[in-house]
Amino acid sequence: MVDVFGATSTTEDVLSGVNLRGKRMLVTGVSAGIGVETARSLAAHGAHVVGAARDLAKAEQATAEVRRDAATGGGSFELVALDLGSLKSVRDCADKLLAKGEPFDVVIANAGVMATPFGNTLDGFETQFGTNHLGHFVLVNRIASLIRIGGRLINLSSAGHRISNVDLQDPNFERTPYDPLVAYGRSKTANILFAVAFDQRHRKRGVRAAAVHPGVIQTELGRYMDPSLLQNLVQQIDKQLTAEGKGPFRWKTIPQGAATSVWAGAVAPAGEIGGKYCENCHVGHIAPDHATITGVSEGVRGYALDSKNAEALWKKSEAMVGESF
């Protein structure tokens, strides 16, 4: 590619000169943070964006700028109801999209929760695994036929996937002591593995899938995090960055955080990102096995890209939701 983007690139940087008119894109989680910015930047460059959110009243207020920029840039925007913590809501949303029959060029599975207290979704799944993975697993697979040839699925993951592999023997913490960050790590690993397996299933018809780490951004996602825990984590990251000969940790802005989603969804060559994990607007490298989340500033765990692991998760997910894809 001619343009080289990185950690400080914004959505406007990666979409500079890009015309998305005629493209239809679905973005989940458009009531706050990078979901709103993702939708705004795509619509501002001409795309028709369907934004999904649990709280439509909140999303309506949060996306006022999305509608303004869409009108200015030749795009458009509409909202649909989606509660990822309820498979009934997920299936209702999918049914409505299928009934309309309008295809998508890109689906960006952006919505999620982080480090929540122990709890369960309406269907009895551990909150983070159920919301971040299983809800999107059912939604995306149900509407897969709507993704055009040449289309893409982009799953939002996190460097937090390095905290833990999935645990397919005890996904709901019925036997394992609950740890909010371990549960988050499992769900974010699942997001990557789902992209790997979806890419394997759909690449023959020209549909590719990738997972992205947006970076560390101060948004509503971190509302359950203890501030002292967060401060300690940042200090650990700074120590590791110093050991790597790099500068201190810097928070990303929301436009910088949304940039990798937009880059992978609309800019990067499909063959470059298909079945991969992306961060800082490039494909991530394999992190050493001994590296913790703070052990390296970039990188993806090998277990998160392992095709056998991805297939095992797919089968387990089908069994949990009672539906085969």
Write a brief caption for the model.
This protein is α/β, with parallel strands linked by helices and 325 residues long.
Features:
325 residues; 11 helices; 8-stranded mixed β-sheet; 42% helix; Rossmann fold
Succession of helices and strands: HEHEHHEHEHEHEHHHEEH
Name of the CATH class: Alpha Beta
Report the principal-axis shape: globular
Helix content: 40-55%
Give the N-terminus to C-terminus distance in angstroms: 35 Å
Strand percentage lies at 5-15%
Query: What name goes with the CATH superfamily?
Result: NAD(P)-binding Rossmann-like Domain
The name of the CATH topology is Rossmann fold
Radius of gyration: 18 Å
**Low-confidence blocks of residues:** none
Query: Strands of the largest sheet, in order across it?
Result: 3-2-1-4-5-6-7-8
Number of β-strand runs:
8
Count of DSSP helices? 11
Major pleated sheet:
8 strands, mixed
| Count of spatially separate domains | 1
Average residue pLDDT? 93
